[in-house]
Structure formats: structure tokens, C-alpha cells
Amino acid sequence: MSGYIPAKLKIMREEDSKLNVIVVGAGLGGLGAAISILLAGHDVLVLESASEIAEVGAGIQILPNSSRVLQSWGMRAALSLHATRPKQVNMRGWRGNLISSMNFQDSASNYPGTFYWDFHRASLHQCLLDRAIELGAAVQCNSRVVDVRICRDGERAWVVLEPGREIEADLVVGADGINSKLREVMLRREDPAIPTGDLAYRLLLSTSEMMKDPELASLVTDPQVNYWLGPDMHAVNYVLKGGKLFNMVLLVPDDTGASTLEGNVEEMRALFKDWDPRIPKLLSMCESVYKWRLCIRPGMDSWSHASGAFTLLGDAVHATLPYLASGAGMSLEDGAVLGECLSRITSKVSAEKQMALRVYEHCRKGRTEMVVQRGNLQQYLYHLHDGPEQEDRDRRMRMVPTPPREALAWRDPELAPKLLGYDHLKDDNHTFLHNSPPGAAEMLSHYSGQISHPVFAGNLA
Ligand SMILES: Cc1cc2nc3c(=O)[nH]c(=O)nc-3n(C[C@H](O)[C@H](O)[C@H](O)COP(=O)(O)OP(=O)(O)OC[C@H]3O[C@@H](n4cnc5c(N)ncnc54)[C@H](O)[C@@H]3O)c2cc1C
């Protein structure tokens, strides 16, 4: 079954139900939320602290669930120009022995209309930015948000920018990433991200050198995603930009105190010198590298302010280890669900926003916690030392059909349908209709303004 995921049409609204929404952070999550909220018929201003809208020079894997979201935003044609569609994923032992493979097309066919796509982050980011602007987003760089204030009746919020300027909104969405300031504003306390004990070396190689080596050329000419699993470390690589670039990520024990810093190439090469000879060869082609300390954000009790004028999404709430390649996917899904919930709004009153944010959180909380936890399990499974546990992991990966909690998680019969088959439209509708927080049914059948709600008075800061 091929399937087709229709693009959502923009809702046209009267002024009295059109929210002025400020999205803080123009990362993948923030831009995705902007698109989704614009499609719901509201106005969006995106505030970004950096001097220009840009992404790190690295690759990103987009799984079927997030390809569904992106297509529903009308981005299929634009993204297809930049996507690499790898044939399969190969899981290898650290010495290069193939443990097991999974064909991506077969897997995606379980979720009709979806794809496994690989992108250069800048391409994906640019497509999201273009779509947001096409739909009417205003985007301001050099705009670091340091605080959010809620007005006494709870109907509006102000973001406070670094030089003290304030901008008013009906709703503020904090999408400011793993080191989120807005999370701390919401919690009214400091709340640093939690180190995982791992860090990532991220490198991009030009494939022209690789093509001269017969052992490496096939990694380019036959695009596949490769994982090598070894004691305390693993390596991932895949092709980008129609075969022009080769993305490599090395996940190793954390030896640093800072979150991002220039890495030492010699140090990195030494860690992998005894691995599959293709890895030292690839690393010998690398001239400089960055290392990223990997942290997580376990969930929050509440993602939104009681007023209904301030909420959070993406890494700010639920940053995960990248071992399921799902962090950005969760941020995009957050934006998609938030937009769906806000599409039901029929006036600007607080009770409607509160209801929308309650349903949003209800849909997203358990799912994103599942991903963070599974990322932690993948860390354990990927980094086993040689021995009985590693042998058992490899044996389970070779079983047909594969058992629950196997290391190739995209095939795990318990996880995969939930992770990859997720449909944000169905989740949102289902939550409203069958599993909704009190009052959602009334809102669905055109909110009448009678739902009682606590009114928050006062500032956050
Ligand atoms: C090594 C690695 C590999 C990964 N691979 C994958 C993968 O293959 N697939 C996948 O789905 N995910 C992957 N991820 C996860 C993914 O990158 C993140 O989950 C995703 O980028 C989070 O998006 P975000 O918009 O929430 O945050 P971010 O992308 O961090 O964006 C936050 C934005 O907010 C801005 N900002 C910060 N503070 C402020 C402020 N006070 N005011 C205004 N603006 C502010 C920042 O400048 C930034 O632009 C990977 C992560 C890592 C580290």
C-alpha cells in the first residue's frame, strides 16, 4: 500500500479568534510549531537569539512519524529535493561484523505514505523556514528572550528581550532548546540539563576522497545507514546531499565539562584505532571536529502555565539521547499537535487556550517520556562490552521475527508501531473525543465559554 498524506489547508479566521503567538527559538521545533500554528489560522512571530537562522553542519535522520508531520505541512515536494533515501540500516559489531539489517522501504510500508529520509540539517531547516515565511511568519533574529510575564487576568503574556524590550502575545511557546531559559522561567528556578555520560563527535566528510578508496566508495554509491556497536561507544554514518557529503557521528564517554567545544582529531582517532578498519580510514580524512556533550531532560510535571498563555515544546521539555534518532521528530510532532489543538479555538478567552494546552500536553507527555527512556535503554544496549550480554543482544537482533526491546529499535514489535506509526491527527482527535480532559468535548462542539477554570493572577518572574 503506497498511501498518501494530504497537506493541511490553512484555516482562515476572524480577528476575534486569531491568536498572536510568539514562538521563542527558530530551531527545528520552533519553526515546525510556527508552521502548524499558522496553518491553524493564527499569527506567529518567531524570536531567535542568534544573529542568523542557521543549523549545525551535520546530518539528521527523519523517521516515518516525522515524515508524516512534514508532509502534512505541505513540504513533501520541497523536502524531496534535499532528502537522501537510504536503502537499509546495518547494525555491526565494532570489528565490522554484520549483525543484522533492516530494509527501510519494507519498514516504511507498514506506515503508508511515510519515508525514512536523511538530510543535511541546513536543508531541512531552510525548508521549514521557507514554509513558515510562506504561511506568513514574522521572524526576528538577535532577539534573546530572558523572561515571560503573564498579565493579571491571565489572558496575555509578554516576552522580555535582553535589552529590556517587551512584546505582547496571546500565547508564548518556548522552543528554545536543551538549555532552555523559558523552562526555568516556567519552573521559577534553575534547572540545568542532565549529563548522560556520553558525548558526540560530529563530522562531515566530502565524499570525493572516499570515492578513491574501493573499501569506502560503496558507502557512498549505495546509501545505507550504518551503526557500529562497541564497548562504551558506537558510531553512525550515512550519506547526504545526493552523495556529496558523508555524515559521521561518534558517541563516546564524556570527558568534558562544556556543552560544545572544538574536539581534538587525534584524540578521536585514538579511541577508534582498533575498530573496523573503515572507521580509522574515514577518521584519517577528517581535519577538524566538534564534540557535543549529550544531556537529557526528563519530563516536567506540567508543560504549560495555568493561565493558558505560555507553554513549552521540543528539547526544552524532553531532550533525549539521539540513539533513536527521534529528538527532532518529537519536537516536530509537538508542534503538529499544538497546532491541531489551537485550530479548535473559537475565541481568545483563557479557558479555550487552557483547554487546548491541556489536550496538547495529554497527547505529548507520555509519548515523549517513552522516547527519552528508550534512548537510555539504547545507550545500554549499544555500548555493551564483549561478553554474554553482548552475545545475547546480537542473537536477539538476528531472531525472526525480532523480540521486544531488541537493539534495532525501529523493528521492535512493541516500540516500532507506536514510535513510527504515530499519527498526530488521530491522537489529537482521539484525545478530544474519548480520553479528553474535562471540558474538551464542549470545546470540540464549539466552546460556549462556560467551562470553569482557575484564573492566574500575577507575573511569573
Ligand atoms: C548528535 C546528535 C544527533 C541527533 N540526530 C538526530 C536525528 O537523527 N533525528 C532526530 O530526530 N533528532 C536528532 N537529534 C536531536 C535533535 O537535534 C533535537 O532534538 C532538535 O534539534 C531539538 O529541536 P528544538 O527546536 O527543540 O531545539 P534547538 O534545535 O536547540 O533550537 C532551539 C533554538 O532556540 C534558540 N534559543 C535558545 N535560547 C533562546 C532564547 N533565550 N531566546 C531566543 N532564542 C533562543 C537557539 O538559538 C535555537 O535556534 C540529534 C541530536 C544530537 C545532539
UniProtKB/TrEMBL annotation:
Alphabetical UniProt keywords: FAD, Flavoprotein, Membrane, Monooxygenase, Oxidoreductase, Transmembrane, Transmembrane helix
Residue intervals passing through the bilayer: 21-41
GO molecular function: FAD binding; monooxygenase activity
Species whose genome carries this gene: Hyaloscypha bicolor E
Record flagged with keyword Membrane: yes
PANTHER family, sorted: FAD-BINDING DOMAIN-CONTAINING PROTEIN, MONOOXYGENASE
Stretches assigned to the FAD-binding domain: 19-374
The organism's place on the tree of life at top rank: Eukaryota
Protein name: FAD binding domain-containing protein
Family affiliation: Belongs to the paxM FAD-dependent monooxygenase family.
InterPro entries named in the record: FAD-bd (IPR002938), FAD-dep_Monooxygenase_BioMet (IPR050493), FAD/NAD-bd_sf (IPR036188)
SUPFAM superfamilies registered for this protein in UniProt: FAD-linked reductases, C-terminal domain, FAD/NAD(P)-binding domain
